[in-house]
Amino acid sequence: MKESRKRYSAAFKAKVAVAAIQEQETLAKIARRFGVHPVLVSQWRKQLLEGAASAFAVSGGGERDAARSQDELLRKIGELTVERDFLSKGLRRYR
What we know:
Blueprint: H1 10-22, H2 27-34, H3 38-55, H4 62-93
Helix pairs in contact: 1-3, 2-3
């Protein structure tokens, strides 16, 4: 019977990665303490170090993303309105 993969929460991964960054224990000891494979500890540590810069990045692009998503939503509303009108006209013919 096939075993399902274990899924770890982001908070757990962060806790393990921070412990690895502190370098008070070896990766093997940290892995044993948290019950994960040492490779996962090193991967999570690497991901935390690579993503740490984004925590301090200026969020100036948020407005641009919001405007883009608003445009996409308005376009979708227009498409759905046209589709609804088309289908309602088609239903009137068969009544």
